[in-house]
Design goal:
Family: Belongs to the UPF0410 family.
Number of domains: 1
Keywords: Cell membrane, Membrane, Transmembrane, Transmembrane helix
Strand content: under 5%
Largest sheet: none
Helix content: over 70%
Order of helices and strands: HHH
Shape: globular
Main location: membrane
Distance between the termini: 49 Å
Structural class: mainly alpha
Number of strands: 0
InterPro entries: Transgly_assoc
Membrane topology: Multi-pass membrane protein
Length: 94
């Protein structure tokens, strides 16, 4: 796998979009700053790409919808987990 500046920029942009989509998928209000959603999105995009490559479905022409859906699912799970931990923290400190 070749790592280029364009590849890093693309990964960051996709990660930001995945973070926003992950936030939209999770029901309810998340008490998290937007930068946290973006960070989760970048992490989910990278992890989703690694899983897709290991599973053998990352190499397609055009947009790989399975990889994108996996990334959004990972971001949604991470947003739900982080929002749940933050919600529990606020309840215990009252």
């Amino acid at each position: 796998m070749e790592l280029t500046v364009w590849g890093i920029i693309t990964a960051l942009v996709v990660g930001l979009i995945v973070g926003a989509l992950g936030r939209l998928v999770v029901p309810g209000r998340q008490n998290m700053p937007m930068w946290m959603h973006m960070l989760i999105g970048v992490g989910a995009a990278l992890l989703g790409t690694l899983i897709a490559r290991a599973s053998g479905f990352a190499e397609t022409a055009g947009i790989d919808w399975r990889e994108l859906m996996l990334q959004v699912l990972l971001a949604a799970v991470a947003v739900a987990l982080v929002a749940g931990v933050g919600r529990r923290r606020h309840v215990t400190h009252r």
